[in-house]
Design brief:
two-stranded antiparallel sheet; about 15% helix; ten-stranded antiparallel β-sheet; 2 helices; mainly beta
Length: about 190
């Protein structure tokens, strides 16, 4: 009887140690999105392949108003390599994004920062066009600040029934998932 209790005690200790180790390995992140620069939401236990929390801040002037949105959630650490992005589509149409990764208490005070808008024209030029619906006429855009790449993107959103062609703009980072041209002859290397 004494050996059974001792065996039970050992199993109990081993199980407790295992459970405490597995709970330490579990990552929880706040999940939310909202207009503005901050949002609050419920904590979510991340999936096994999601090993960091993220916060992304997006500034858009695509609809003729300045709108900032923020989102938080779980993600793979690969997303942490995403550089700050800045897309200038001409006619005051700008899209900027800044993403940071964090874990635990660091997420409570972490705030992504957007790069300041540069208005000084450089010697680069890109064909630019943006439309919230339908087609648009391309014009040459004088790139500003560190913008040195041209990019081409066409997007449709079927669920929301929105459609916007965007043919070219100035950009200063190579962003994953977008087709960007290297500094082109049009960009005035």
């Amino acid at each position: 009887l004494k050996e059974v209790r001792r065996g039970d005690a050992i199993l109990y200790v081993l199980r407790s140690v295992f459970l405490s180790l597995s709970s330490v390995a579990t990552l929880e992140c706040e999940v939310c999105s909202d207009i503005g620069t901050n949002c609050t939401g419920n904590m979510k236990t991340c999936d096994d392949q999601q090993n960091t929390c993220f916060i992304i801040l997006i500034l858009s002037t695509l609809e003729d108003t300045v709108m900032q949105t923020v989102a938080k959630g779980c993600e793979s650490k690969e997303v942490c390599k995403t550089p700050k992005s800045h897309l200038n589509m001409g006619q005051g149409k700008i899209l900027q994004a800044s993403l940071i990764c964090c874990t635990k208490d660091a997420c409570k005070t972490a705030r992504p920062q957007l790069p300041p808008l540069k208005t000084e024209v450089n010697r680069k030029h890109c064909p630019a066009c943006y439309s919230g619906s339908g087609t648009c006429d391309e014009e040459m855009l004088n790139c500003t600040g560190p913008e040195k790449y041209c990019f081409h993107m066409f997007s449709r959103t079927y669920a929301g029934k929105s459609h916007f062609p965007c043919e070219g703009a100035c950009e200063f980072h190579l962003a994953a998932g977008w087709h960007l041209t290297h500094p082109s002859p049009a960009a005035g290397n």
